[in-house]
């Protein structure tokens, strides 16, 4: 139910948003940030997230402070972790938040929500969290009954229902710095790229989300007809860099360069923003392309498309399930070496790319 004015502090001065997930998940929280900023333009909006995802939101203009939880705390001993967690709670309480919005489903996030001392504490009424403490931690709970039919962006936005806010700004946002843009121009120029180009990120932290190396190389060679440089990107992880190296060894297109492992997340955002087209798999860079409104061809396998498809009308999804039977996403062994995207033919991706580049 909407929060009555005798419960909601007027004016709202400070808001904390909590989301403890991966890079792509953080990007999909930005419509909530944007909507809160539009509704409460004078309010300070903070966010609590995992340290490794901070770069995704580092330059968001609507955020005042970014609080972090470092998952390495627990590896430095119990005393160190307790000290860091206590300092975090103290820092959050010192901000005197009017509203705390917990988008996470962890007990840790519920404890932090409760200890924040905020007058209004909103969370999701998860079926797996039907406990007295979860209800005490949040004084407004939002149903998740229809979440199975909603994109993650829509799920996130639904948590604002108690505030009775019009959901006008539903787009995701990705920001980078002028230094990132200057770095892009210098780096690409050093590789002989001064005009339009295509970005392909074929890698993912999970191998089962990747397409075959041979098909990626075949696509790169076929795109030579477009007379555009191809920029390959990947995370610094050795397995991803090795995958890019293998793809390059199979290519015959002379206009392909690799920036694998050479870019920070915000530098990568700048490179994607400057591209004519982004081609990639289900990953954070794909969500970045959607947020930057870069034309996007996204390859998906046994993933819940309803939740994770690119949140952009300037995108095309090619699903392996249209070409072969796939297992249920809930049954996937994430450590498997099987590449379920192998069912996707090169021609399907090439035709989609041509549609954007013609």
What does this structure look like?
Strands 3-2-1-4-5-6 form a 6-stranded parallel beta sheet, sandwiched between helices. It has a 6-stranded parallel beta sheet with strand order 9-8-7-10-11-12, with helices on both faces. It is built from 14 helices and 12 strands. It has 358 residues and is of the alpha/beta class. Helix 9 (213-222) links the parallel strand 7 (198-201) and strand 8 (230-232). It has helices at 23-27, 30-39, 54-57, 78-94, 107-115, 132-137, 152-158, 178-190, 213-222, 238-250, 265-273, 284-291, 305-308, 346-357; strands at residues 14-18, 44-50, 63-69, 99-102, 120-125, 140-143, 198-201, 230-232, 256-258, 277-281, 296-300, 315-319. 35% of the residues lie in helices and 16% in strands. The longest helix has 17 residues, at 78-94.
State the main characteristics.
single chain; six-stranded parallel β-sheet; 358 residues; alpha/beta
Instruction: State the strand order across the main sheet.
Output: 3-2-1-4-5-6
- How much helix, percentage-wise, in residues? 25-40%
Radius of gyration: 22 Å
Which regions contain 5 or more consecutive residues with pLDDT less than 50?
none
Alpha-beta classification: alpha/beta
Approximately how much beta-strand content do the residues carry? 15-25%
Written as H for each helix and E for each strand, in order along the chain, the element string is EHHEHEHEHEHEHHEHEHEHEHEHEH
Shape: globular
Beta-strand segment tally = 12
Number of helices: 14
């Amino acid at each position: 139910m909407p929060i009555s004015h005798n419960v909601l502090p007027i004016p709202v001065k400070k808001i904390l948003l909590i989301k403890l997930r991966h890079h792509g998940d953080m990007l999909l929280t930005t419509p909530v940030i944007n909507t809160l900023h539009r509704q409460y333009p004078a309010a300070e909006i903070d966010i609590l997230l995992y340290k490794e995802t901070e770069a995704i939101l580092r330059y968001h203009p609507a955020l005042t402070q970014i609080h972090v939880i470092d998952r390495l705390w627990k590896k430095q001993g119990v005393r160190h972790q307790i000290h860091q967690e206590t300092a975090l709670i103290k820092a959050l309480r010192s901000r005197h938040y009017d509203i705390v919005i917990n988008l996470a489903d962890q007990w840790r996030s519920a404890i932090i929500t409760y200890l924040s001392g905020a007058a209004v504490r909103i969370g999701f009424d998860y079926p797996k969290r039907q406990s007295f403490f979860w209800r005490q931690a949040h004084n407004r709970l939002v149903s998740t009954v229809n979440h199975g039919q909603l994109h993650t962006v829509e799920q996130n936005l639904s948590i604002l229902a108690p505030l009775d806010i019009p959901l006008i700004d539903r787009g995701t946002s990705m920001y980078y710095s002028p230094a990132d843009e200057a770095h892009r121009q210098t780096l690409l120029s050093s590789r002989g790229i001064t005009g339009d180009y295509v970005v392909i990120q074929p890698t993912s932290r999970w191998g089962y989300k990747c397409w075959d190396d041979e098909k990626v190389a075949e696509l790169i060679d076929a795109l030579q007809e477009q007379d555009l440089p191809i920029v390959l990107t990947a995370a610094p992880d050795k397995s991803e860099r090795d995958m890019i190296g293998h793809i390059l060894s199979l290519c015959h297109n002379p206009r392909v360069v690799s920036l694998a492992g050479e870019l920070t997340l915000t530098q990568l955002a700048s490179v994607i923003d400057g591209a004519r087209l982004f081609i990639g798999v289900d990953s954070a860079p794909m969500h970045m392309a959607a947020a930057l409104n870069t034309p996007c061809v996204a390859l998906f396998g046994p993933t819940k498309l309803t939740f994770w498809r690119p949140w952009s009308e300037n995108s095309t999804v090619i699903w392996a399930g249209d070409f072969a039977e796939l297992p249920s996403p809930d049954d996937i062994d994430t450590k498997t070496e099987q590449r379920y995207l192998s069912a996707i033919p090169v021609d399907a991706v090439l035709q989609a790319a041509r549609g954007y580049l013609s």
